[in-house]
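Message: I would value a second opinion on how I read folds in token form. Give me a protein, with the fold worked out from its sequence. Write it directly below this note and I will take it from there.
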Amino acid sequence: MKYPRLLLLCTLGWLGQLPGVKAQQDPQFSLFMYNQLYLNPATAGADGKTRLQIINRMQWQGYQTTTGDGGAPNTLIVSGSIPLNFAKSAVGIHYVNDRIGATGSQEVQLSYAYRMNINENTLALGARIGFQNRYIDFSKLVAREPGDPLIPTGRLGQTQPDIALGAFYDATTFYIGASVNHLNQPKFSLSGDANNALAPNAYITAGYRLEPIYGLEIQPMVLVKTPLGFSPKTLSVEGGVIATWDEWIFGGVTYRLQDSYNIIAGINILSNKALRIGGAVDLIGKSRDIKAPASYEVMISYALPALTKGKKTPVRTPRFRY
């Protein structure tokens, strides 16, 4: 037990030494328990499988501005993760397209995790590097005075490098992870302010695995998010419980503090349960007068065996021997 506690204390202490900058929220996902690679590069290959996955979040569905084409946030993430057990490591990659009104962002990130065995548990240290693109589409803005020459036309965007670090400790009955992104504080000057930087955001995840009866796994979990320029107003906490029966069907509920109640459900299908299909519904509990009452997420992922080095091990059966 001393290793995860020491890891968490050291990570939190290191995060506390970083300077605070302007806060800017990254996209959020109610299916965060199945989207760990986006939060923490050290979770690449954590489930021991090569996994390809797509999640699409449609936030505040039905939200409409008084003019224009809506403006509700929509986020798409495509990710892939490959364990490299022969090298005690793993690699991952993800692409995010996030849109809200006339603004948006795109990112492509490559993650690497080095995995160390501690007794029967695993400690992974991860790093991520990639690119962030932020843009404004002026054609989606509604001008008070159409034709105003001071309002630009077309789409204006900038691309900057982006760096993240993380650690993940995975034991038989629990896991805990800590990470921070935007370490290099990429700066964008779309609004004319050259000091408009992405704030480093810290993430802490933890979960516990219970099996009260054979075939039933119950997993309480929590996710804490905060910009490093900490303030109670910017702290985000969500948590809940997911139940999985026979590695086949899963469902649960989570709560995002002062925001929403979230219902999650899904199924693992095919003979090897490699295809996962799931979804989430967020029921907005606060500020419903300025938001649509619900948000939705859909997920599809496919798992393959981990890569192996050298020849495949022969499978010997009484009927076919070779």
User: Anything to note?
Assistant: DSSP finds two helices and 15 strands in the chain. Residues 1-24, 313-322 have pLDDT under 50 and may be disordered.
